[in-house]
Design goal:
By secondary structure, the protein is of the alpha/beta class. The chain has helices spanning 38-50, 58-66, 86-97, 119-127, 147-165, 181-189, 223-230; strands at residues 9-11, 14-17, 19-20, 35-36, 54-55, 75-82, 103-106, 131-134, 171-173, 194-200, 203-205, 212-216. The protein has a single domain, classed as Alpha-Beta Barrel (TIM Barrel), CATH 3.20.20.
């Protein structure tokens, strides 16, 4: 890297959700803190919209980092991990109501399991203008894997989504937020341009485009606490196993 190189940084709060569902009726029980009730999620999105925040896409973030493209005055990214069917039954209608976009990180090996997005539903999200990102094939903890399995999880999930959507996918989320240097190298080798972690923070940088922090939104969050997080309040730590 040239000695005069200076990293470019962008303040971009990225809210992280997993499930939006009535916890008492979940088919696959999640950790309680990873499930937000539908009415609460709707109230949070309504509050974000009223406060003047505008959701942006991954491409907009990339262009802001690498091409100095302008972002809205109050940008935010809504991200959703794991690929539960809630993404289309609960989350998408609310996003449409408030003219928002989101990034959905899909576990590609679960697309034929009950309770998870099927291929048609993933294509439905993409057709609605949502970003689709990879979240591996089986949600394995990547640092623990030997090289061949690591490549299958990372590059394999990229290939799965490329076949399903008909175009490359450049966005990645680490299961459990777990990564090391070897994992980051594999994510880069697979062609991903931006990757998100479970580390708390709100700044993306060209220094570490594959280690972008996010803000966990848990079950106890309310519309007002989410607005506080977007305004720079201390972000809660994601629970162990989240991501």
């Amino acid at each position: 890297m040239p000695s005069h190189y200076a990293p470019h940084r962008v303040r971009i709060p990225i809210l992280t959700y997993h499930r939006v569902h009535t916890f008492a009726t979940e088919l696959h029980k999640s950790q309680p803190d990873l499930t937000v009730e539908p009415d609460t999620f709707r109230a949070e999105m309504a509050a974000i919209a009223r406060a003047g925040y505008q959701t942006i896409t991954q491409r907009q973030l990339f262009d802001a980092l690498y091409r100095a493209a302008a972002l809205p005055p109050k940008p935010v990214i809504v991200s959703v991990d794991d690929g539960y069917v809630d993404d289309v039954t609960e989350i998408l209608p609310v996003l449409r109501q408030y003219h928002m976009t989101a990034t959905f990180y899909v576990i590609t090996g679960r697309t034929h399991e009950q309770g998870f997005l099927n291929p048609d539903q993933i294509r439905q999200l993409a057709a609605a203008g949502m970003d689709i990102g990879a979240h591996t094939r089986t949600h394995a903890s990547l640092p623990a894997l030997p090289p061949a399995e690591l490549r299958s999880e990372v590059d394999g999930s990229a290939s799965d989504l490329r076949r399903l959507l008909g175009h490359p996918v450049y966005w990645f989320a680490y299961p459990y937020g777990a990564f090391n240097d070897a994992v980051v190298r594999e994510v880069r080798r697979a062609g991903f341009l931006l990757a998100v972690t479970t580390r708390a923070g709100e700044t993306a940088s060209t220094d570490a485009p594959l280690e972008i922090p996010r803000i966990h939104v848990g079950r106890a969050a309310t519309a007002s606490t989410v607005l506080g997080l977007l305004g720079g309040g201390a972000a809660p730590r994601a629970p162990a196993g989240a991501g």
